[in-house]
């Protein structure tokens, strides 16, 4: 294992793992802290998915340090602390406190912070974070329920979260390439900076920054910052050339689509699958609550289908969702559906199903948890941000495509299968 990463949430971890995998690293994503007996051999990168973005700062620090220790013990030569490309945090943390704790633990003089992800419209210029054409503080992130971002000046934002001196490496240096960035790092260290925000507005910037950071033990940022890191290991002769990147094979067995996301993209994907002849059963939260619909009854329906890949979905239009929420309560309605889909996943695995396409962030979390999945090997990308993965549990191993609600093209449910070989 060469690179160890700590991500502050599950889908962010997948995003990073996919980035590393696309750059030729055989990458495994671990859900939660890796167990003590976790086998780190045979992979190039391990991404630990924590749920630490909005928990208390001291808890986030202690979880992240635990993860870091396990990754280092597993052989990691470099650590990445991955957070959101919109720098989701509050004055109390958790980006500053976690970065500070990690850099101190590693005994490093300097680390960098760069949330830029140009492909998704996140760029950093003169220390200010832009979301598309807007400053972060003018974007919808200003109203985020948990981490409202009202200041786009990342030097200022980060300085409020840490006692370490925060500096800036501007685009002038980044545009000149890795050697100039390295010089800027040295100059920052001379000045007493311990964390530098680094400007980046293109993927090439990120690659140059990654190159310049080859010897940093800790790098922090969005998934974009990982773009240039695998190449460092390749230059050092530790990583195979791109062509030799890991192959992926999905376990053999029946396949199913489970959709609990009510997002617009998922609803379009459901319509498009049904139009193309996919057998589908729609779940009504009220029928689940009354006991009329059960995991058993859904599984019996699934087993009765012949040909094609069946789809079980609860996804509904906003009006319908409102109605079930009024009847059951917002949280209860969600829980009931998640619980049922999770039980269906468990039952279908018992019945020989091995390929699961799950739509919805919370829904995916519920299914992964119910199946007891501890680690996922990242496979081929289906659409931006959504890879096939395979869980690592020997003969209980399953292939999982975990789709965030709004990700994927309209034909996602149809085309995903051709990628899972
Ligand atoms: P997304 O990624 O689109 O946000 P999630 O799975 O994270 O999707 O969230 C969708 C939530 O809505 C889940 O908690 C799910 O159980 C709930 N849900 C799904 N279908 C319905 C429905 N028909 N009525 C009410 N809630 C629903």
- Counting structural domains, the number is 2
Main sheet: strand order: 9-10-5-11-4-1-3-2-16-17-18-15-12-14-13
Estimated share of beta-strand residues = 15-25%
The CATH topology annotation of the largest domain reads as Rossmann fold
Mean pLDDT: 93
In DSSP terms (H or I, runs of 4 or more residues), the helix count works out at 15
The count of DSSP E runs of length 2 or more, i.e. the number of strands, is: 18
Bound small molecules, by name, code or SMILES, are: adenosine-5'-diphosphate
Architecture of the largest domain, CATH level 2?
3-Layer(aba) Sandwich
In helices, the fraction of residues equals 25-40%
CATH class of the largest domain: Alpha Beta
Biggest sheet, in brief? 15 strands, mixed
Between the first and last Cα atoms, what is the distance in angstroms? Answer: 26 Å
Give the low-confidence spans. none
Rounded to the nearest angstrom, the radius of gyration is 22 Å
Query: Which secondary-structure class do the elements indicate?
Result: alpha/beta
Query: How does the overall form come out from the CA principal axes?
Result: globular
- CATH homologous superfamily descriptor of the largest domain: Putative sugar-binding, N-terminal domain
